[in-house]
Write a structure and sequence with these properties.
- It is a single chain.
- The chain is an alpha+beta fold.
- The protein contains nine helices and 17 strands.
- A six-stranded antiparallel β-sheet has the order 3-2-1-4-5-6.
- A hairpin with a 4-residue loop joins strand 4 and strand 5 (about 175-195).
- Helix 3 (about 130-145) runs parallel beside helix 4 (about 215-225).
- It starts with 9 loop residues before the first helix and ends with a strand.
Length: about 450
Amino acid sequence: MQDSRFSHSFSTLQQISQDILKQAKNAGASACEAEVSQAFGQNVSVRQNEVETIEYNRDKGLGVTVHFGHRRGHASTSDFSPDAILDTVKAACSIARHTASDEFAGLADEALLAKDIPDLDLYHPWELGVEQAISLAKVCEQSAMAVDSRINNSEGASVSTHESLFVYANSLGFIGGYPSSRQSISCAVVAESPHGMQRDYWYSSARAADDLDAPEIIGRTAGLRTVRRLDARKLKTMQVPVLFEASIASGLIGHFVGAVSGGSLYRKSSFLLDSLGKEIFSPLVQLSEQPHLAKGMGSSPFDNEGVATRARDVIRDGVLQGYFLGSYSARKLGMTTTGNAGGSHNLILADTGHDFESLLATMGTGLLVTELLGQGVNAVTGDYSRGAAGFWVEGGEIQYPVEEITIAGNLKEMLRNIVAIGNDILPHRSRQCGSILIGQMTVAGE
Protein backbone atom coordinates (compact mmCIF):
# COMPACT_ATOMS: atom_id res chain seq x y z
CA MET A 1 0.00 0.00 0.00
CA GLN A 2 1.43 3.37 -1.04
CA ASP A 3 0.48 5.41 2.03
CA SER A 4 2.62 8.30 0.77
CA ARG A 5 0.06 9.10 -1.95
CA PHE A 6 -2.56 9.92 0.66
CA SER A 7 -2.66 12.77 3.17
CA HIS A 8 -3.15 10.31 6.03
CA SER A 9 -1.62 6.85 6.30
CA PHE A 10 -3.67 3.69 6.70
CA SER A 11 -2.43 3.35 10.28
CA THR A 12 -3.57 6.91 11.00
CA LEU A 13 -7.08 6.12 9.76
CA GLN A 14 -7.07 2.99 11.93
CA GLN A 15 -6.07 5.03 14.97
CA ILE A 16 -8.77 7.63 14.31
CA SER A 17 -11.40 4.90 14.09
CA GLN A 18 -10.21 3.35 17.35
CA ASP A 19 -10.28 6.76 19.06
CA ILE A 20 -13.88 7.21 17.93
CA LEU A 21 -14.92 3.85 19.35
CA LYS A 22 -13.24 4.63 22.67
CA GLN A 23 -14.84 8.06 22.93
CA ALA A 24 -18.28 6.65 22.16
CA LYS A 25 -17.88 3.98 24.82
CA ASN A 26 -16.80 6.61 27.36
CA ALA A 27 -19.93 8.59 26.47
CA GLY A 28 -22.11 5.63 27.40
CA ALA A 29 -22.86 4.21 23.95
CA SER A 30 -23.64 0.49 23.97
CA ALA A 31 -22.26 0.09 20.44
CA CYS A 32 -20.49 2.18 17.83
CA GLU A 33 -19.22 2.01 14.28
CA ALA A 34 -16.98 4.40 12.41
CA GLU A 35 -15.82 4.87 8.83
CA VAL A 36 -12.88 7.12 8.01
CA SER A 37 -11.99 7.79 4.40
CA GLN A 38 -10.00 9.99 2.06
CA ALA A 39 -9.75 10.30 -1.71
CA PHE A 40 -8.11 12.32 -4.41
CA GLY A 41 -8.25 12.50 -8.17
CA GLN A 42 -7.66 14.42 -11.35
CA ASN A 43 -9.83 15.07 -14.38
CA VAL A 44 -8.65 16.64 -17.60
CA SER A 45 -10.95 17.40 -20.53
CA VAL A 46 -10.34 18.80 -23.98
CA ARG A 47 -12.80 20.07 -26.57
CA GLN A 48 -12.02 20.95 -30.17
CA ASN A 49 -8.37 20.11 -29.46
CA GLU A 50 -8.16 22.76 -26.73
CA VAL A 51 -7.89 22.18 -23.00
CA GLU A 52 -11.27 22.86 -21.43
CA THR A 53 -10.86 21.85 -17.79
CA ILE A 54 -8.16 20.68 -15.41
CA GLU A 55 -9.67 19.61 -12.12
CA TYR A 56 -8.05 18.29 -8.97
CA ASN A 57 -10.03 16.99 -6.04
CA ARG A 58 -8.95 15.90 -2.60
CA ASP A 59 -11.41 15.20 0.17
CA LYS A 60 -11.78 13.30 3.40
CA GLY A 61 -14.49 12.51 5.88
CA LEU A 62 -15.54 10.38 8.78
CA GLY A 63 -18.90 9.11 9.92
CA VAL A 64 -19.86 8.01 13.43
CA THR A 65 -22.88 5.87 14.27
CA VAL A 66 -23.65 5.19 17.93
CA HIS A 67 -26.28 3.02 19.57
CA PHE A 68 -27.79 3.45 23.00
CA GLY A 69 -29.67 0.19 23.18
CA HIS A 70 -31.97 0.39 20.16
CA ARG A 71 -31.67 4.13 19.76
CA ARG A 72 -29.37 5.24 16.97
CA GLY A 73 -27.54 8.48 16.16
CA HIS A 74 -25.24 9.44 13.31
CA ALA A 75 -22.96 12.42 12.70
CA SER A 76 -20.15 13.19 10.27
CA THR A 77 -17.34 15.67 9.65
CA SER A 78 -14.52 16.39 7.23
CA ASP A 79 -12.30 17.73 10.03
CA PHE A 80 -9.86 15.16 11.42
CA SER A 81 -8.62 17.29 14.33
CA PRO A 82 -9.07 15.72 17.79
CA ASP A 83 -11.52 18.39 18.91
CA ALA A 84 -13.66 17.99 15.78
CA ILE A 85 -13.72 14.22 16.15
CA LEU A 86 -14.78 14.49 19.79
CA ASP A 87 -17.50 16.99 18.86
CA THR A 88 -18.75 14.63 16.16
CA VAL A 89 -18.99 11.72 18.60
CA LYS A 90 -20.84 13.95 21.06
CA ALA A 91 -23.24 15.04 18.31
CA ALA A 92 -24.00 11.43 17.35
CA CYS A 93 -24.62 10.56 21.02
CA SER A 94 -26.91 13.55 21.46
CA ILE A 95 -28.93 12.56 18.40
CA ALA A 96 -29.24 8.97 19.64
CA ARG A 97 -30.55 10.09 23.02
CA HIS A 98 -33.37 12.00 21.32
CA THR A 99 -34.45 9.40 18.77
CA ALA A 100 -37.13 6.78 19.15
CA SER A 101 -36.16 3.21 19.91
CA ASP A 102 -36.02 0.89 16.91
CA GLU A 103 -35.82 -2.80 17.76
CA PHE A 104 -34.17 -3.59 14.43
CA ALA A 105 -31.29 -1.13 14.82
CA GLY A 106 -27.84 -2.33 15.80
CA LEU A 107 -24.54 -3.63 14.53
CA ALA A 108 -24.28 -6.67 12.33
CA ASP A 109 -24.17 -10.12 13.93
CA GLU A 110 -20.62 -10.64 15.20
CA ALA A 111 -20.47 -14.18 13.80
CA LEU A 112 -20.97 -12.83 10.27
CA LEU A 113 -18.15 -10.28 10.33
CA ALA A 114 -15.21 -10.87 7.99
CA LYS A 115 -12.35 -12.68 9.70
CA ASP A 116 -9.88 -13.02 6.84
CA ILE A 117 -9.75 -10.11 4.40
CA PRO A 118 -8.32 -11.15 1.01
CA ASP A 119 -6.40 -8.75 -1.21
CA LEU A 120 -8.60 -8.30 -4.28
CA ASP A 121 -6.05 -6.25 -6.24
CA LEU A 122 -8.24 -3.14 -6.30
CA TYR A 123 -5.53 -0.49 -6.07
CA HIS A 124 -3.53 0.54 -9.12
CA PRO A 125 -2.37 4.16 -8.89
CA TRP A 126 -1.84 5.90 -12.20
CA GLU A 127 1.18 8.21 -12.26
CA LEU A 128 -0.42 10.48 -14.83
CA GLY A 129 0.88 14.00 -15.34
CA VAL A 130 -1.40 16.73 -16.60
CA GLU A 131 0.42 17.06 -19.93
CA GLN A 132 0.17 13.32 -20.50
CA ALA A 133 -3.54 13.37 -19.65
CA ILE A 134 -4.10 16.24 -22.08
CA SER A 135 -2.26 14.31 -24.79
CA LEU A 136 -4.37 11.18 -24.23
CA ALA A 137 -7.59 13.20 -24.32
CA LYS A 138 -6.56 14.94 -27.54
CA VAL A 139 -5.69 11.64 -29.20
CA CYS A 140 -9.07 10.25 -28.16
CA GLU A 141 -11.01 13.22 -29.54
CA GLN A 142 -8.96 13.39 -32.75
CA SER A 143 -9.61 9.69 -33.38
CA ALA A 144 -13.34 10.33 -33.07
CA MET A 145 -13.32 13.39 -35.33
CA ALA A 146 -11.31 11.53 -37.98
CA VAL A 147 -13.96 8.83 -38.43
CA ASP A 148 -16.14 10.82 -40.84
CA SER A 149 -16.24 14.34 -42.26
CA ARG A 150 -19.81 14.68 -41.01
CA ILE A 151 -18.51 14.74 -37.44
CA ASN A 152 -18.19 18.50 -37.08
CA ASN A 153 -18.40 19.15 -33.34
CA SER A 154 -17.35 17.64 -30.06
CA GLU A 155 -18.62 17.53 -26.52
CA GLY A 156 -15.08 16.72 -25.49
CA ALA A 157 -12.84 13.90 -24.33
CA SER A 158 -11.88 13.34 -20.70
CA VAL A 159 -9.24 11.41 -18.82
CA SER A 160 -9.76 10.91 -15.10
CA THR A 161 -8.02 9.20 -12.21
CA HIS A 162 -9.35 8.48 -8.74
CA GLU A 163 -7.81 6.89 -5.65
CA SER A 164 -9.39 6.31 -2.25
CA LEU A 165 -8.53 4.75 1.08
CA PHE A 166 -10.88 3.90 3.95
CA VAL A 167 -11.12 2.12 7.27
CA TYR A 168 -14.30 0.75 8.85
CA ALA A 169 -14.37 -0.33 12.49
CA ASN A 170 -17.00 -1.24 15.04
CA SER A 171 -17.19 -2.00 18.74
CA LEU A 172 -17.47 -5.76 18.13
CA GLY A 173 -13.75 -5.74 17.37
CA PHE A 174 -13.90 -5.55 13.60
CA ILE A 175 -11.49 -3.25 11.79
CA GLY A 176 -10.70 -3.38 8.10
CA GLY A 177 -10.08 -1.26 5.07
CA TYR A 178 -8.17 -0.97 1.83
CA PRO A 179 -7.23 1.41 -0.97
CA SER A 180 -8.89 1.34 -4.37
CA SER A 181 -8.58 3.11 -7.70
CA ARG A 182 -10.73 3.90 -10.72
CA GLN A 183 -9.40 5.21 -14.03
CA SER A 184 -11.39 6.23 -17.10
CA ILE A 185 -11.26 7.75 -20.58
CA SER A 186 -14.36 8.99 -22.41
CA CYS A 187 -15.35 10.87 -25.54
CA ALA A 188 -18.55 12.31 -27.07
CA VAL A 189 -18.90 13.88 -30.52
CA VAL A 190 -21.59 15.37 -32.76
CA ALA A 191 -22.27 14.64 -36.41
CA GLU A 192 -24.54 16.46 -38.85
CA SER A 193 -26.35 15.62 -42.07
CA PRO A 194 -29.06 17.47 -44.03
CA HIS A 195 -31.61 15.67 -41.83
CA GLY A 196 -30.22 16.86 -38.51
CA MET A 197 -27.57 16.31 -35.85
CA GLN A 198 -26.77 13.29 -33.72
CA ARG A 199 -24.43 12.62 -30.82
CA ASP A 200 -23.05 9.55 -29.14
CA TYR A 201 -20.18 8.63 -26.87
CA TRP A 202 -17.99 5.84 -25.63
CA TYR A 203 -15.82 5.25 -22.60
CA SER A 204 -13.57 2.78 -20.85
CA SER A 205 -13.05 2.43 -17.10
CA ALA A 206 -10.99 0.05 -15.01
CA ARG A 207 -9.12 -0.27 -11.74
CA ALA A 208 -5.78 -0.16 -13.60
CA ALA A 209 -4.77 2.11 -16.47
CA ASP A 210 -3.24 -0.86 -18.29
CA ASP A 211 -6.73 -2.39 -18.54
CA LEU A 212 -8.24 0.63 -20.27
CA ASP A 213 -8.94 0.54 -23.98
CA ALA A 214 -6.52 2.65 -25.99
CA PRO A 215 -7.72 6.26 -26.45
CA GLU A 216 -7.69 5.73 -30.22
CA ILE A 217 -10.14 2.85 -29.87
CA ILE A 218 -12.42 4.76 -27.50
CA GLY A 219 -12.48 7.77 -29.83
CA ARG A 220 -13.04 5.73 -32.94
CA THR A 221 -15.89 3.83 -31.27
CA ALA A 222 -17.51 7.11 -30.20
CA GLY A 223 -17.20 8.41 -33.76
CA LEU A 224 -18.63 5.29 -35.38
CA ARG A 225 -21.53 5.18 -32.93
CA THR A 226 -22.34 8.81 -33.70
CA VAL A 227 -22.22 8.55 -37.49
CA ARG A 228 -24.39 5.44 -37.63
CA ARG A 229 -27.21 7.40 -35.95
CA LEU A 230 -27.45 9.99 -38.73
CA ASP A 231 -30.65 10.23 -40.79
CA ALA A 232 -32.71 8.51 -38.12
CA ARG A 233 -36.38 7.81 -38.85
CA LYS A 234 -39.50 7.39 -36.76
CA LEU A 235 -41.55 4.21 -36.41
CA LYS A 236 -45.23 3.39 -36.34
CA THR A 237 -46.64 2.10 -33.04
CA MET A 238 -46.34 -1.70 -32.89
CA GLN A 239 -45.45 -4.68 -30.74
CA VAL A 240 -42.13 -6.29 -31.64
CA PRO A 241 -39.11 -7.99 -30.05
CA VAL A 242 -36.66 -5.54 -28.48
CA LEU A 243 -32.91 -6.09 -28.16
CA PHE A 244 -31.18 -4.03 -25.46
CA GLU A 245 -27.57 -3.39 -26.43
CA ALA A 246 -25.03 -4.52 -23.81
CA SER A 247 -24.13 -0.94 -22.86
CA ILE A 248 -27.66 -0.34 -21.52
CA ALA A 249 -28.86 -3.89 -20.80
CA SER A 250 -27.34 -3.78 -17.32
CA GLY A 251 -30.04 -1.25 -16.46
CA LEU A 252 -32.60 -4.07 -16.53
CA ILE A 253 -30.51 -5.92 -13.95
CA GLY A 254 -30.39 -2.72 -11.94
CA HIS A 255 -34.19 -2.47 -11.83
CA PHE A 256 -34.35 -6.09 -10.64
CA VAL A 257 -31.75 -5.47 -7.91
CA GLY A 258 -33.67 -2.46 -6.65
CA ALA A 259 -36.87 -4.49 -6.47
CA VAL A 260 -35.33 -7.31 -4.39
CA SER A 261 -33.25 -5.11 -2.09
CA GLY A 262 -34.14 -4.83 1.58
CA GLY A 263 -35.39 -1.25 1.69
CA SER A 264 -37.86 -1.78 -1.15
CA LEU A 265 -39.06 -5.06 0.32
CA TYR A 266 -39.78 -3.99 3.91
CA ARG A 267 -41.37 -0.76 2.68
CA LYS A 268 -43.47 -2.86 0.29
CA SER A 269 -42.49 -0.57 -2.57
CA SER A 270 -41.42 -3.33 -4.96
CA PHE A 271 -43.02 -5.14 -7.88
CA LEU A 272 -41.26 -8.32 -6.69
CA LEU A 273 -42.62 -8.70 -3.15
CA ASP A 274 -42.52 -12.25 -1.71
CA SER A 275 -40.67 -13.53 -4.76
CA LEU A 276 -38.00 -15.62 -3.02
CA GLY A 277 -37.94 -19.14 -4.46
CA LYS A 278 -40.21 -18.15 -7.33
CA GLU A 279 -39.52 -18.06 -11.05
CA ILE A 280 -39.30 -14.37 -11.89
CA PHE A 281 -36.98 -14.57 -14.91
CA SER A 282 -37.01 -16.71 -18.00
CA PRO A 283 -35.64 -20.21 -17.17
CA LEU A 284 -32.69 -19.29 -19.42
CA VAL A 285 -31.39 -16.78 -16.89
CA GLN A 286 -28.48 -17.48 -14.55
CA LEU A 287 -27.27 -14.54 -12.44
CA SER A 288 -24.51 -14.76 -9.85
CA GLU A 289 -22.85 -12.38 -7.43
CA GLN A 290 -19.05 -12.61 -7.38
CA PRO A 291 -17.65 -10.14 -4.80
CA HIS A 292 -14.08 -11.45 -4.83
CA LEU A 293 -13.11 -10.96 -8.47
CA ALA A 294 -9.59 -9.56 -8.77
CA LYS A 295 -9.72 -5.94 -10.02
CA GLY A 296 -13.52 -6.13 -10.07
CA MET A 297 -15.29 -2.77 -10.13
CA GLY A 298 -17.81 -4.10 -7.63
CA SER A 299 -15.43 -6.26 -5.61
CA SER A 300 -15.24 -6.05 -1.83
CA PRO A 301 -14.17 -8.51 0.88
CA PHE A 302 -16.80 -7.12 3.27
CA ASP A 303 -19.85 -4.90 3.07
CA ASN A 304 -20.52 -1.52 4.71
CA GLU A 305 -21.12 -3.22 8.08
CA GLY A 306 -18.04 -5.43 8.02
CA VAL A 307 -20.03 -8.55 7.07
CA ALA A 308 -18.02 -10.98 4.96
CA THR A 309 -19.13 -11.09 1.33
CA ARG A 310 -19.48 -14.39 -0.48
CA ALA A 311 -20.12 -15.70 -3.96
CA ARG A 312 -23.66 -16.94 -4.54
CA ASP A 313 -26.29 -17.65 -7.15
CA VAL A 314 -28.93 -14.93 -7.22
CA ILE A 315 -30.97 -16.38 -10.07
CA ARG A 316 -30.79 -20.05 -11.00
CA ASP A 317 -32.85 -21.25 -13.97
CA GLY A 318 -34.97 -18.13 -13.62
CA VAL A 319 -35.72 -18.72 -9.92
CA LEU A 320 -34.79 -16.11 -7.29
CA GLN A 321 -32.37 -17.66 -4.78
CA GLY A 322 -31.78 -14.68 -2.50
CA TYR A 323 -32.48 -11.01 -1.81
CA PHE A 324 -29.95 -8.18 -1.31
CA LEU A 325 -30.01 -7.40 2.41
CA GLY A 326 -28.09 -5.50 5.04
CA SER A 327 -28.56 -6.24 8.73
CA TYR A 328 -31.33 -3.72 9.34
CA SER A 329 -33.50 -4.76 6.40
CA ALA A 330 -32.84 -8.43 7.14
CA ARG A 331 -34.12 -8.02 10.70
CA LYS A 332 -37.17 -6.14 9.47
CA LEU A 333 -37.92 -9.11 7.18
CA GLY A 334 -37.07 -11.79 9.73
CA MET A 335 -34.09 -12.93 7.69
CA THR A 336 -30.27 -12.86 7.75
CA THR A 337 -28.10 -10.27 6.04
CA THR A 338 -26.68 -11.31 2.67
CA GLY A 339 -23.63 -9.06 3.03
CA ASN A 340 -25.13 -6.39 0.81
CA ALA A 341 -25.19 -3.36 3.09
CA GLY A 342 -24.18 -0.70 0.60
CA GLY A 343 -25.26 -2.60 -2.50
CA SER A 344 -24.47 -5.54 -4.73
CA HIS A 345 -21.04 -6.84 -5.72
CA ASN A 346 -20.15 -7.84 -9.31
CA LEU A 347 -23.33 -9.27 -10.79
CA ILE A 348 -22.54 -11.67 -13.63
CA LEU A 349 -25.28 -12.60 -16.10
CA ALA A 350 -24.46 -15.80 -17.99
CA ASP A 351 -24.89 -15.67 -21.76
CA THR A 352 -26.97 -18.15 -23.75
CA GLY A 353 -24.27 -18.83 -26.33
CA HIS A 354 -25.28 -16.01 -28.68
CA ASP A 355 -22.94 -13.46 -30.17
CA PHE A 356 -24.39 -10.11 -31.24
CA GLU A 357 -25.02 -11.18 -34.82
CA SER A 358 -26.90 -14.29 -33.75
CA LEU A 359 -29.01 -12.17 -31.39
CA LEU A 360 -30.04 -10.05 -34.38
CA ALA A 361 -30.78 -13.21 -36.35
CA THR A 362 -32.83 -14.65 -33.49
CA MET A 363 -34.83 -11.43 -33.28
CA GLY A 364 -35.44 -11.37 -37.01
CA THR A 365 -37.57 -8.24 -37.18
CA GLY A 366 -37.64 -5.80 -34.29
CA LEU A 367 -35.94 -2.94 -32.50
CA LEU A 368 -32.32 -2.68 -31.36
CA VAL A 369 -32.16 -0.12 -28.53
CA THR A 370 -28.84 1.68 -28.02
CA GLU A 371 -29.96 4.63 -25.90
CA LEU A 372 -32.63 5.14 -23.25
CA LEU A 373 -34.07 8.48 -22.17
CA GLY A 374 -36.05 9.51 -19.11
CA GLN A 375 -36.87 7.71 -15.88
CA GLY A 376 -40.26 6.17 -16.61
CA VAL A 377 -40.02 3.11 -14.36
CA ASN A 378 -42.53 2.47 -11.55
CA ALA A 379 -40.72 0.46 -8.87
CA VAL A 380 -44.01 -0.52 -7.19
CA THR A 381 -45.94 -1.82 -10.22
CA GLY A 382 -43.04 -2.60 -12.56
CA ASP A 383 -44.55 -0.49 -15.33
CA TYR A 384 -41.80 0.49 -17.75
CA SER A 385 -41.97 3.30 -20.30
CA ARG A 386 -38.89 5.09 -21.59
CA GLY A 387 -37.84 7.17 -24.53
CA ALA A 388 -35.44 5.32 -26.79
CA ALA A 389 -33.25 5.49 -29.87
CA GLY A 390 -31.61 2.71 -31.83
CA PHE A 391 -32.01 0.77 -35.06
CA TRP A 392 -34.75 -1.00 -36.95
CA VAL A 393 -33.88 -4.60 -37.79
CA GLU A 394 -35.37 -6.81 -40.51
CA GLY A 395 -34.27 -10.28 -41.51
CA GLY A 396 -31.65 -10.21 -38.77
CA GLU A 397 -29.93 -7.21 -40.38
CA ILE A 398 -29.80 -3.60 -39.20
CA GLN A 399 -31.75 -1.46 -41.70
CA TYR A 400 -31.68 2.15 -40.46
CA PRO A 401 -31.45 4.27 -37.28
CA VAL A 402 -34.62 5.29 -35.42
CA GLU A 403 -35.38 7.99 -32.85
CA GLU A 404 -38.22 9.73 -31.03
CA ILE A 405 -39.83 6.48 -29.95
CA THR A 406 -40.98 5.06 -26.62
CA ILE A 407 -40.66 1.45 -25.51
CA ALA A 408 -43.14 0.20 -22.93
CA GLY A 409 -43.97 -2.93 -20.99
CA ASN A 410 -43.98 -4.30 -17.46
CA LEU A 411 -40.73 -5.43 -15.86
CA LYS A 412 -42.31 -8.61 -14.49
CA GLU A 413 -43.29 -9.65 -18.00
CA MET A 414 -40.06 -8.39 -19.54
CA LEU A 415 -37.86 -10.41 -17.18
CA ARG A 416 -39.88 -13.57 -17.82
CA ASN A 417 -39.79 -12.93 -21.56
CA ILE A 418 -36.01 -12.86 -22.01
CA VAL A 419 -35.37 -14.90 -25.14
CA ALA A 420 -31.56 -14.75 -25.36
CA ILE A 421 -28.51 -13.15 -23.74
CA GLY A 422 -25.40 -12.22 -25.68
CA ASN A 423 -21.76 -12.94 -24.96
CA ASP A 424 -20.81 -9.36 -25.93
CA ILE A 425 -20.08 -8.50 -22.30
CA LEU A 426 -18.38 -5.18 -21.62
CA PRO A 427 -15.49 -5.77 -19.18
CA HIS A 428 -14.64 -3.84 -16.02
CA ARG A 429 -18.21 -3.08 -14.96
CA SER A 430 -19.91 -3.99 -11.72
CA ARG A 431 -22.88 -5.48 -13.62
CA GLN A 432 -21.53 -7.64 -16.38
CA CYS A 433 -24.00 -8.73 -19.00
CA GLY A 434 -24.26 -8.92 -22.76
CA SER A 435 -27.11 -7.67 -24.90
CA ILE A 436 -30.54 -8.88 -23.77
CA LEU A 437 -33.35 -9.85 -26.17
CA ILE A 438 -36.94 -9.41 -24.91
CA GLY A 439 -39.56 -11.40 -26.82
CA GLN A 440 -42.06 -8.56 -27.19
CA MET A 441 -42.64 -4.97 -26.09
CA THR A 442 -44.75 -2.07 -27.24
CA VAL A 443 -42.89 0.43 -29.40
CA ALA A 444 -44.78 3.72 -29.57
CA GLY A 445 -43.97 6.05 -32.44
CA GLU A 446 -46.01 8.04 -34.87
